[in-house]
Write a structure and sequence with these properties.
By secondary structure, the chain is mainly α. It contains six helices and no strands. The longest helix is centred in the first third of the chain and has 18 residues.
């Protein structure tokens, strides 16, 4: 069943965290739809890297993964997860949120900047 559409490549520009979540979900759907999730770990790792693209391969070559773990899909995915979702500085994000000032002419309905600050706090 190779009719499933391949996911788009991982973009390391812009919001890397959101890009990672999209490609991870698309990759998992693709693997199940094509039944490639039944293949060996090494093959699944190579499929992921070929789908993720050249930027991801360059990143993969710089990640701190033991040589024997480089062929295990779970270890590679965890390394990408750690890179694309760095630890947040909650104290600093709270500071930015609470220091936000309403600008002149900015109505109550235009809260998109405030929303983006709120979601960086990871309210749950």
């Amino acid at each position: 069943m190779d009719e499933a559409r391949k996911p788009s490549q991982l973009s390391l520009d812009g919001n890397i965290s959101a890009n990672w979540k999209k490609i991870k979900q698309s990759y998992q759907i693709y693997m199940k739809a094509t039944e490639k999730n039944l293949k060996s770990e090494e093959i699944k790792t190579n499929i992921f890297l070929s789908i993720a693209g050249e930027e991801a391969i360059e990143l993969f070559n710089t990640l701190d993964i033991k040589e024997e773990d480089r062929v295990k899909e779970t270890n590679v995915m965890e390394a990408f997860e750690a890179y694309c979702n760095p630890k947040k500085n909650i104290v600093y994000e709270r500071f930015k949120f609470y220091k936000r000032q309403q600008l002149d002419g900015l109505g109550f309905c235009k809260l998109s900047a405030l929303d983006s600050l709120w979601f960086k706090l990871d309210p749950g």
